[in-house]
Design goal:
This protein is mainly beta. The protein contains three helices and 33 strands. The longest helix has 10 residues. The termini are far apart.
């Protein structure tokens, strides 16, 4: 099997003709997948070989041409710790990720559905719409899924498959061509420590790494999740079946380990650098899995549809322990930690919780109950900034504590 995978990698061809502004080729070693899987991936990302891939470096315009300027209002205080940020977006926009540059901790970008891209220079107090003109050339309404910076070098991925790259803190963006045969849609991008280095992950479990500014990519796994499940279907993983190898949520820790929830929420998978394949695991209860991630001490946290929170060791195979949290039946959609003791959880119907004992017990932020939105993403920056993303364009910003 490894010899077959190695042969596939060795014979990898460039995914697209060239990224014209740099005049360079981008080669990606594909993971092993069936012809049916490649066809499905191509159908999910149509038209990526057309004229938009021949666009030059993309200028990030300060004009809000594609984002109509909406009336500005003052941010609204929610509690002593959180404020609701007024955003220049329509209510149906789904906010998806935030990242700040390494050179200026107050300079960052917020992105989401309908090609939403907002920029801040004051730590997220105010945001202005930005547009990438060439992202509109194919007529797609891209969903920008993930953004990551190392210094002034940044990356954005989205669906249908799109990859943007900047080296000047987002003043200009270059579009990097991606193949219609890319296994799955890019859902996570991580800027690595060295210049020109990044790691891109798709919802079918493909992981690609570049060290030269996306001129070439190397596959970190040798087969899609579909292929892995088909190969281990008799290994005792409850709920696993043929052709359901996609993820609803993927999380990565600083060491490069991954944990991912299956699209049906009935099992989860882990991967660590150096492993050839993803490893499937059984869930701790019959309730559907919502999301998973990592604690500061490298444990895995896990949330279920009924609002339960569990912890397990980083292997995913140890004994699960359950945290004390009165979720009132609402699903917990994300958990993030600021340090070893302080952390936050968010979920359905304005659910917002805080822990000060490393996640063993949680206290509800009752002021958030008035929010008519599901809160589903937490982001905390090394500089101490904190945000909660919700539907209907809701953004919470952590303010200085009284």
């Amino acid at each position: 099997m490894s010899a077959l995978a190695a042969a596939v990698v060795a014979e990898a061809r460039p995914l697209a003709a060239r990224a014209t502004r740099a005049g360079r080729r981008m080669a990606v070693a594909p993971v092993r997948c069936t012809a049916e899987e490649q066809a499905a991936a191509a159908a999910a990302a149509p038209g990526l070989g057309r004229r938009a891939l021949l666009s030059a470096g993309l200028a990030l315009s300060a004009a809000a041409a594609a984002q109509p300027a909406l009336p500005a209002h003052a941010n609204r205080l929610l509690s002593a710790e959180w404020e609701v940020v007024d955003l220049p977006v329509e209510k149906d926009v789904l906010l998806l990720d935030i990242a700040f540059t390494g050179s200026d901790p107050n300079h960052g970008f917020l992105l989401g559905s309908r090609q939403t891209l907002l920029e801040t220079f004051d730590g997220g107090k105010t945001w202005e719409p930005r547009t990438v003109q060439a992202a509109q050339d194919e007529g797609f309404n891209f969903r920008f899924n993930s953004i990551s910076f190392n210094g002034d070098e940044g990356w954005i991925v989205g669906k249908p498959a799109i990859l943007l790259h900047t080296t000047d803190g987002g003043k200009s963006w270059e579009r990097i061509p991606l193949s219609a045969k890319l296994p799955g849609a890019p859902v996570l991008i991580t800027a690595l420590g060295a210049a020109g280095s990044a790691e891109m992950t798709t919802d079918q479990g493909a992981i690609y790494v570049t060290s030269n500014g996306a001129m070439n990519w190397t596959a970190a796994v040798q087969e899609t999740v579909d292929a892995t499940l088909n190969r281990v279907i008799s290994s005792g993983i409850s709920g696993a079946s043929y052709y359901e190898g996609s993820f609803s949520n993927i999380s990565r820790n600083a060491a490069g380990d991954y944990v991912a929830v299956s699209s049906r929420g009935n099992f989860f998978m882990t991967w660590s650098p150096g492993q050839t394949y993803w490893k499937p695991h059984n869930r701790p209860s019959t309730r559907r899995l919502q999301n998973m991630g990592y604690t500061p001490d490298s444990q895995i946290w896990l949330t279920t549809k009924g609002g339960d929170v569990y912890y397990v060791d980083s292997s995913g195979e140890g004994k699960f322990s359950q945290a004390k949290i009165n979720s009132r039946g609402f699903g917990i959609l994300d958990i993030k930690f600021v340090n070893d003791q302080l952390g936050y959880a968010c979920g359905g119907s304005g659910s917002l919780f805080k822990t000060e004992d490393g996640g063993q017990s949680w206290k509800r932020e009752k002021a958030a109950d008035e929010l008519a939105a599901n809160l589903y993403e937490l982001v905390f920056t090394p500089a101490g900034l904190g945000f909660v993303l919700g539907n209907d364009g809701v953004l919470l910003r952590r303010i200085a504590q009284v």
